[in-house]
Amino acid sequence: MPFDPKTRQYRNFSVSNFQASEPEEKEEQSYRVRGYFTTFNEPYELWPGYFEEIDPHAFDTCDMSDVIMQVNHDGHVFARTRNGSLLLAFDEHGGIGEADLGGSKRGREELYESIKNGLVDRMSFGFNIADDGFEYTVDSDGVYHTRITKISKLYDISAIEGFPANDGTEISARSYFDGAIKRIEAERLQSALEAQRAMELRRKRMELRAKSMQLRH
Questions:
Q1: CA atoms within 13 A on the CB side of 48
Q2: C-alpha of 103 from chain center
Q3: What secondary structure letter does DSSP report for 131?
Q4: Cβ-contact 128, 6 below 8 angstroms
Q5: Could you tell me where the DSSP H helices lie in the chain?
Q6: Under DSSP, is residue 128 helix (H, G, I), strand (E, B) or coil?
Q7: Which residues are CB-neighbours of 142 under 8 A, at least 6 positions away?
Q8: What SS3 state is found at 108?
């Protein structure tokens, strides 16, 4: 299997519409930011030869009871759903996070200004995949295609500093595993596929044997 459901996953996305809102004249200063933390039905490359996409219904039964907003998943909380400073929504394009960063000095003076000035322009989210929450295939070229169909828990959305994994697209993603873990996961996936093929071969042999016995009688 390509994922361990007990392991928290992370995905980074380059989102050009992650931006700060501008308050109207005479209004109090607003520190709200908004952007897509994931998209649906858009394959992205986790690592060479391994593509992933997220199903539009992946969040239908997801536990989103207390989701926080961070920077680089570093543990500092800038907003959270539990107190209403973080709002989550979904449309046909993906998952949207809207956060009020006015609750802390660091949020107002550092993160908000960085987003407003375009220095931070991508997001990420931390989550668990359900035991039966993914499908995968391997095409004739040996390229893996995984589709996440059920996310069991959403922990956080995060503003991400630095360069997107793929600067040429609106959405990009990369695995947080190091190279060794990537190889292990690829080997596990290959083993699972080989076992599936072996089971299918055994099933066909049993069917042929059953037909042969019927013909004898």
A1: 2
A2: 27
A3: T
A4: yes
A5: 105-106, 112-116, 179-216
A6: strand
A7: 49
A8: helix
Q: How confident is the model at residue 171 (pLDDT cuts 50, 70, 90)?
A: very low
Distance (Å, rounded) from C-alpha 53 to C-alpha 135?
10
pLDDT of residue 162: 64
Cα 112 to chain center, whole Å? 24
Which tens digit of pLDDT belongs to each residue from 51-108? 889 999 999 999 999 999 998 888 889 999 999 999 999 999 889 888 999 999 999 9
Distance CA 100, CA 87 (A): 9
What's the rounded Cα separation, in Å, for the pair 129 and 183? 20
Q: Within 10 Å of residue 213's Cβ, how many Cβ atoms? A: 9
Q: Can you give the residue ranges of every domain in the chain?
A: 9-176, 178-217
Rounded CA-CA distance 44/26 in Å is 43
Q: Residue 53's closest CA among 158, 203, 172, 153?
A: 172
**pLDDT tens-digit profile of 27-61?**
556 788 888 888 899 888 878 888 889 999 999 99
